[in-house]
Design goal:
Glutaredoxin; 3 helices; 121 residues; two-stranded antiparallel ribbon; five-stranded mixed sheet; alpha/beta
């Protein structure tokens, strides 16, 4: 899984084509550590690429560019443009419900997304 820093973005745009889901997280965040295996499981679904937006450095420009207030925060990009966002909740982070919302959002707009627990057609 790619780890992205500020150079991978032009303001709020991801400098990569296609559909990417970025988990903005920090190495020191226990909720990020807990969420990462669930996030990585998205890669099994296909239809989009995964990356980590590294917020470990509290001085990273990504905090302000994406107005991240709670980690992890998950943003889906289509050809560089944000199309879905789910912010972590204080004291909880993100969970399976957030991943299901992401799958539904990407699947409902014509992107190939496979519902949780199903094999691709």
């Amino acid at each position: 899984m790619d780890v992205l820093g500020p150079a991978a973005f032009d303001g709020p745009r991801l400098q990569r084509p296609g559909t990417w889901v970025v988990d903005f997280s920090a190495a020191w965040c226990p909720f990020c550590d807990e969420f990462l295996p669930r996030f990585a499981s998205l890669g099994k679904d296909g239809g989009f690429a995964l990356a980590i937006g590294d917020l470990t450095d509290v001085e990273s420009a990504l905090w302000d560019v994406f107005e991240v207030r709670v980690t992890p925060t998950m943003i889906a990009f289509r050809d560089g443009i944000p199309v879905f966002r789910r912010d972590g909740r204080l004291g909880e982070g993100l969970d399976e419900g957030d991943l299901q919302a992401l799958r539904a959002a990407l699947g409902s707009s014509g992107e190939k997304a496979v519902p949780a627990g199903r094999d691709p057609p």
